[in-house]
Amino acid sequence: xxxDLHTHSTASDGTDSPAELVRKAADAGLDVVAxxxxxxxxxxxxxxxxxxAELTLIRGMxxxxxxxxxxxxxxxxxxxxxxxxxxxxxxxxxRERLRAERVDRLRAMAExxxxxxxxxxxxxxxxxxxxxxxxxxxxxxxxxxxxxxxVNAAFTDLLASDGPYYVEKADTALRRAVTMIAEAGGVSVLxxxxxxxxxxxxxxxDVRDLVSHGLGGLEVDHPDHSAQDRATLxxxxxxxxxxxxxxxxYHGDNKTIVLGExxxxxAQFEKLVGRATGVPVLAS
Length: 284
Ligand SMILES: [Zn+2]
Ligand SMILES: [Zn+2]
Known about the structure:
By secondary structure, the protein is α/β, with parallel strands linked by helices. The protein contains ten helices and eight strands.
């Protein structure tokens, strides 16, 4: 069984439509794939309709949260949410707030760039970005306008968190997100928890505290994790009785990672499914 539990479609910042994503997952020899777009379930219906019969589909999402870093600083944390009930009132309202927040924030950044004379049209950027608007959309507009040579260059300069145009997001507090996912019948898994290239790291003590609030697991095998990172997370999962997943974090052509680059052990997958009560696994 080949199981990849973290992928993105055009419903957020991937380049494959949800239908293309499930077809490519089957073509890549995966038995199970999860669709986990940022802060939205907008890709679920299309992925479900296009699912090849031999592919098992897990409906999920990757949530942007704020946790506590070493020294107590706030850190941006991604939390995977699997098989939750999308109609759960509290969780649905929070997703709606996050979507509005994403759009407002991207507009503020684009408008400041335009005001400073950069060749950026905020309306065009927002229209192209759609509901899961994020910095990658603005980065691509900057590349197309010839302001920066690459998306990466945009992120290390104009769009950096200590750069001139950065606007803070009011993300969900990590503990609250863990609680909401559990209440919606879902299973939460901390995404790429040791990926230093993404900024300051979450305090591991914070992870221990989350277990009693319903945290389900840790993403151990991820392309951004070193062997040492994986060992650290594996130890922590063992200590806390958490699930361990492995996933590609596939984004289509936006990254060089391929589907199934990292995978989840079948026994861990079965445990995850066994804990979820929100929506069923889609299998033939
Ligand atoms: Zn992420
Ligand atoms: Zn991701």
